[in-house]
Structure formats: structure tokens, C-alpha cells
Specification:
Elements lengths: L1 H18 L2 E7 L21 H8 L2 E3 L2 E2 L5 H10 L3 H4 L14 H8 L3 E7 L10 E5 L9 E4 L9 E3 L4 H16 L6 E6 L37 H4 L40 H36 L6 E7 L18 H4 L3 E4 L8 E3 L3 E2 L3 H8 L14 H6 L9 E6 L11 E6 L2 E6 L15 E6 L17 H17 L8 H10 L4 H17 L11
Parallel strand pairs: 1-8, 1-9, 2-11, 3-12, 4-5, 4-8
Antiparallel strand pairs: 2-10, 5-6, 6-7, 9-10, 13-14, 14-15, 15-16
This protein binds calcium ion.
Amino acid sequence: MLQKICFILLLCLPVVAADRPNILFIMSDDHTSQAVGVYGSRLAKLNPTPTIDSLAKEGVIMKNAFCTNAICTPSRAAIMTGQYNHVNGVYDLGGTLPMDQQYLAIEMKKAGYNTAMIGKWHLKKEPNYDYYKVLPGQGKYHNPTFKEKGKGAWGKNVVQMQGHSSDCITESTIEWFETKREKDKPFFLMHHYKAPHDMFENAKRYDSYLEDVEIPEPENLWSQPKFGSIATRGHKGGLDKYIGTSIGRRHEYRNYTKNNGPWIKPEGVDEMNDVEAKRAAYQLYLKRYLRCVKGVDDNLAKLFAYLKKEGLYDNTVIVYTGDQGFMLGEHDYMDKRWMYEEAQRMPFIVRYPKGIKAGSVSDTIIENVDFAPMLLDYAGVKTPNYMQGKSFRNIIESGVEPESWKKGAYYRYWMHLAHHWNPGHFGIRTKHFKLIFYYGVDYKEKGQFQTPPAWEFYDLRKDPNENVNQYDNPEYKSVISQLKEDLRKKREEIQDTDDKFPQIKAVVDEFWDYDEADRAKAIELAKEAEKNGLKPIRHRKKK
Ligand code: CA
């Protein structure tokens, strides 16, 4: 009898345990896959992330995880709601997510999880968690203040910490484990670093990290004659100096060789020629960025050591990601926002030894709207109907991608020409190809569009760095028309059809087929934009 009971218990125990693991969602800000060792970029040889790499090697690396809008607040809103930005309403940096729309946190709590949010939040409204301690807005790198639950009304509940933000956030999380966690429940913890967001301020102890190292340059920092389109470069390169802020001196208003606003200017750069100046700016940009990354990685080593000591490391689903990618000099671009690989891709790693085989690598396409459904799946919650994403838990556990799984990731950037002069665009990215449509008009402005519309198409099998726009290559004619059709269907399926934005809809309809008349008109618009110089545009806050 006893034997029989033991046998039944043995059968049941792992099921019960696997049913309700703890969930730790770790996200850094702007930490791009090129700066994560296991993603194997040119920077991997610098060994930027040994801790994150160990996590990845014991779990699964998602090679094709994409954000639907490569900018902080909208990406966070997509993760929190499981919805694209035109549905959750967070189009840009001015967007907010009210408490009753913080679905992931709400569903976790409903499922009996003890919920906490610590670090960078950036969704403006009070976080709907059992506990929170969040940076106000972007937060500060040094001696940051936080808003902490239990310290008064939202906005007045400010506490001050001393030290670097990455250290303070880790310390706060360990303190939550020690003194605040409800130990009779599984936990759902979001642990979010501010680093390595610009302006890249590292903790003092990293000042000399990589000091004497020459950071490898991407080839397309220098030359890319077939990259882009009239939308991104103008007619015969006439908009090169106005579209997409740069590492070198290319961009007229904002580049990393200029002491422009809070940017750091490399020493002696004014006396350098263009090549020397770009080289120096690149080294400085990368070193400052990677010093912040190193701070994150070391802090995670500390956090993981704590989890191991407490016996929490193996019964917790641990996710590591960044809220979007980042351009580290590829195409001579800085910042994010683009649909190009470096900005669109998110690092995404999951470790959970009870369900995921160590050393797994997946090329399944996932989008940030799928994160909430996947996390909820681990909590035993069926994806709510209002979420547009789908759980990929089965895929990462079985290694098998079902035939019905999505074939492409949708992307859309709304903030036309804001901050870094990126034209409004949308597109689709499949395992092999990428099709981008730059419609070039703001969603809030009425009237004329300001930049020439154009399509770009990249064959990622032959050209993973997207150096050759093949939109006009007749060899790809049928592939491109199929992709356009897929893009049209995807937009209908997720209801991103611009019915609310007639000024965009008109451009999309007019330039969809991109016939000779459209091309001629794009040239006129490019010349006009060049003449006007695309003066700095201050993006208006959402009313
Ligand atoms: Ca970000």
C-alpha cells in the first residue's frame, strides 16, 4: 500500500511542481543581441556577457525574437498587454499604460502568483503588482530615486538610493526576496535594468574596462553603396545627411562626433578628419555601451548566485531579454527605431531545466506580443482572448515548430522623424526575407507627408547584414509580391489598417504598387525634403 502511495506521489509530484514554477523576467534597456556573447556577432570575441551566456547554454536561445516597434515604452506595452501598439494605444514614448491594462501582471496575480516589478518601468502609470520599486521615467544612472509601493501615494512614494542604478536594482530585488516575498506562493518577478540605455553611464569600477581594446567595426560602418532607398537616403544620396542619426559626421544635426546636447564628444575630434573622427566616435560609443552591459552581466552573476543559494534557480523559469535591439554603428546608425536586424531583433533566452533542454537553439519567429502568452502558459493560464500573441512554450520545450505557427514578424515604427530622424515605416520579416515600406508621414500630423515613400527588400540568406536593397531586382519579383500579400493579410489580421489615420492610409494606398508615377513622385518629394533640410522635429506628446 505504502509503495503504491509512494509511486502515485512520484508520478504526481513533478507534474505539480512543473505546473507552477516561479517566473523571473529579466529585461535590460536597449541591450542588443550583437552585445550578447551567445548571439555570435563581431563583438562576441570580447566576451561581453559571460553570465548571460551561461544562462543561455543551460536553456534555449531564440535566434529570431523580434519587437513589433523598436522603442522603449511601446515595446514594454506590447510585452505587458500581448497586443500590438495600435491596439494597446501606446504608439510612442508619450504613451501610458493604465493599471487596468497591465494585463500580464493582472493575470499572474489572478493565477495566485506573488507579483513584483523592480527597476525601469517606463509605462508612466502606477504598476499593478503586489510590490513595485520602479525608476521614475528613464530614471538616473547614479544615485537614482525610485517610487516604491508602501511608501505613500503614487508619485509621492519616492525613495533615494546611493550607487549605480544596476547595482541598486539588484540590491532591491534581493531585498524583496529576503523581506517582502510571500513565500507560500510562486512568484512572478519583473527585474528590469535601465542599463545600457544612452547616455551610457557605467559604474566607476568599469572605467578602465576595454580601455586598451580595439572594438571591431562592422564593415557597413564605412561603405554601403547598395543599402537603403530613396526613403532613407534620398535621391542620389541627397538625404544621407538628414535621415538616421550617425556615428560619423554624416548626420547634419545629431551625430556622435558632435557635442550635441548630452552626447559625449571624443577627445580631440574637432581636429580629426572625417575618417578619424568616425573611428574615434565609434570606439567611444561602443566602449561606453559595453561598460554598461558588463555592469548588467556582473549584477546578474550576483543575482543568480543568490537564487542558487536559496534553492530557487532550477524551479524558476528565467527569461533574459532587452526591450528591443540597438544599432551599434551598423549602417553608420546609432540608436534603435529601425526595422533593420540590429534594432528589430531582441535577445531572448529562457532557462528552465525542468522543461527546456540545455543547449537548445530555436529559429522560430516570435514577437514581443507572444511573451505574455508564453509566461502565462507557464503559470497555467490559457492565453486570454484579448491578447494577440500566442504561447510558444511548446516550441521551446519540444523543439518542434508546428506548421500553423506564424511565418513572419510584423513591425511598425510610428514616430516619424522624432529624435533620430527615422521615417515612419512598417514591414514583415520572415526567416529568409525582409520587406519594409517607408510611408514617411506622421500619424498625428495632418496634410502632406514629409519624406519620400519607398520599399526595401533584403534577402537575409545571402545578405544577413542587409547591405543590398533588392526591391528592384527582377529575380525577386514573385517573392516580393508574395511578401506584399502576406504583409497586407497580416495587417488585416491584426487590424493595423490605418482607418484612424487617413493621411497615412492615402500614402499606403497610393504607393503600394510603386509604379513609375509613384517613383517619379518620390523623387520630387526627396528633392523637396532635401531643399527643406528636414529641420529638427519635436515630437508632440500624446494629449
Ligand atoms: Ca529601450
